[in-house]
Amino acid sequence: MSQTIVNVKNLQGQTVQWSMNLNLTDRWGELIDEVPAFERDPQFLERLRAQMVEEESFIVRKKTAFGVMIEYEFTSTCSDGSAALNRLTYEGVCDLLLANLRKRAEEFPQVHFAIGDPDHCYKGRPTVWAFIPDQALDDAQRAELLNMIKSL
Question: What domain range is 74 assigned to?
Fold first, then answer.
């Protein structure tokens, strides 16, 4: 399985590259493509599915690690025009999200945070990506993480 190189903004606002297999499943855990690791070990897929958070996550692979990625979108005037919930541009929303994430990310040291590449996000919206390696958080921590992201 070849990986896609995705440009993301890290917590410092710098563009860095994540090597990923995005969206191995949909938001309900259904496989989108064949994944040899899951064919060899169906229980592994079930364990990852059990770690998905509401309908805000997908199973992905980042470099060599499988896990769950929470993907939570925010609106901006660039992606949503006058329907945006705020009057901020894409960059303005990203700056605000990153400033707030920097304050809270230390609560989840196992999680890799970034602002997703707009080419890989719905309508190019500012989107927080939180990659959770397999078994890094329990159910309560994953729910707390999602609530934290929603509150940004």
Answer: 4-150
Question: Which tokens belong to 122?
Answer: 């719905």
> How many domains does the chain fold into?
1
**Predicted TM-score of the model (pTM):** 0.91
DSSP character string of 79-116: HHGGG-SSS--HHHHHHHHHHHHHHHGGG-TT-EEEEP
CA pair distance 12, 143, nearest whole angstrom: 25
CA distance 112 to 132: 7
Nearest CA to 69 among 2, 152, 6? 6
**Over the stretch 91-131, which tens digit does the pLDDT of each residue have?**
888 999 999 999 999 999 999 999 998 788 877 778 999 99
Q: Which two tokens stand for residue 22?
A: 């995005």
**Which of 71, 66, 70, 88 has its CA nearest to residue 79?**
88
